[in-house]
Amino acid sequence: MTDTTDRTDLTDSPDSPDTGEQGQRRRRLTAWKRSGRILSRASAESTLGERLTALAADAGSAYDLDEWADVYGDGVVAELERRVARTLGLEAAAFFPTGTMAQQVALRCWAGRTGNATVALHPLSHPEVHEGGALAAVSGLRTVLPTHAPRLPTADEIRAFDEPFGTLMLELPLRDAGFVLPSWEELTAVVEAARERDAVVHFDGARLWECAPHLGRTLPEIAELADSVYVSFYKSLDAMSGAALAGPAALIAEARTWRHRYGGQVFQQYPAALSALLGLERELPRLPEYVAHAKVVAAALADGFRAAGVPWFRVHPEPPHTHQFQVWLPYPAEVLTEAAVRQAEETGVTLFRRWFADTPPGLAVTEVTVASPGLEWTREDVRAAVADFTERLRP
């Protein structure tokens, strides 16, 4: 994809001078909030009062609220780190305020240990597309690209790559290629190929939580393949913010030092930590169910587009590898976004959210997430929503 925007309404600044766009954002958020039928809801789409009330009401199930608030990473933050390490089957974990910082630190630590500051990754990976060149500008790392195919590199591509690298970073799933995953056999083979080249392997597992069904392995079995793993708390677990870096105890101890140097030693982080603990307790066990139903929704979307006579469409991948996937249509992005928000406003049904222009010209893409509210949708519900949506595209 050529569009470098992180594809979410939640990145638009409330202080943006573009009041027209800010007004449209508020319109979309209002329409989604009022929808009686929607495929997923994000906590960040709630008001401040709603979010604070829900956290105060629910957090006691995940942590003793009579404990003292955290100070510089103790208390509830340390408990979250222990639970993440245990969930992934790794020695230790460290909480970071952002995934960008967590991965900067991980890759910098590995560069020092391997003596090679070159990182092999995919051109659609998050550091290449969504971080403003931070790996080079902030951490002095250099990136190389073993493949340009819209999938993770293969073992043969890693073996044939013509220059050395210290770390191979694999984004699981590769979000901007359509939340795609390799098979378990392909993943183990590419890890083995990297090790043959004396490189370490780091998993960008921002959405690792939902990879187990497709790979057919447990989270500890997946995490064990890598030398280090980063996971996000808000992308799949619906927490407020934050991430964790997990791996060997010695690496995590070094990462804590670099976390402080990067400005990540925050005085108190209990809201983020509590919401992450809630996500581990409530959302993580349900992700396999979401992944399974995403396949139902994706198939019904394709059926609906065919029935509506849409001249061209693509649901990608089909079937989805996780509970998120892409939909492509041959219309201007602004036309599709307007049809989607009007459908939500007029019928109380949110099928799609924002659409984005992409290449070649004339195509637009959106991302679909199936979570708890989406489990209520039958195939017939999806097809009916598609029929209503496509009718809004007719002249």
How would you characterize this protein structure?
The chain has 395 residues and is an alpha/beta fold. The protein has two domains: 9-52 and 285-391, Aspartate Aminotransferase, domain 1 (Alpha-Beta Complex); 67-282, 3-Layer(aba) Sandwich (Aspartate Aminotransferase, domain 2), CATH 3.40.640. Helices cover 43% and strands 14% of the residues. It has 15 helices and 13 strands. The chain has helices spanning 19-34, 48-58, 76-88, 99-114, 126-129, 134-137, 155-160, 184-196, 212-215, 219-224, 249-261, 270-282, 287-308, 333-347, 379-391, and strands spanning 37-38, 92-96, 118-120, 142-144, 167-171, 200-205, 228-232, 243-247, 314-316, 324-329, 349-350, 356-358, 363-369. The strands form three sheets. A seven-stranded mixed sheet has the order 2-8-7-6-5-3-4, with helices on both faces. It has a four-stranded antiparallel sheet with strand order 9-10-13-12, with helices on one face. Strand 9 and strand 10 form a beta hairpin. Helix 1 packs across helix 14 (333-347). The longest helix is centred in the C-terminal third of the chain and has 22 residues, at 287-308. The radius of gyration is 21 Å and the shape is globular.
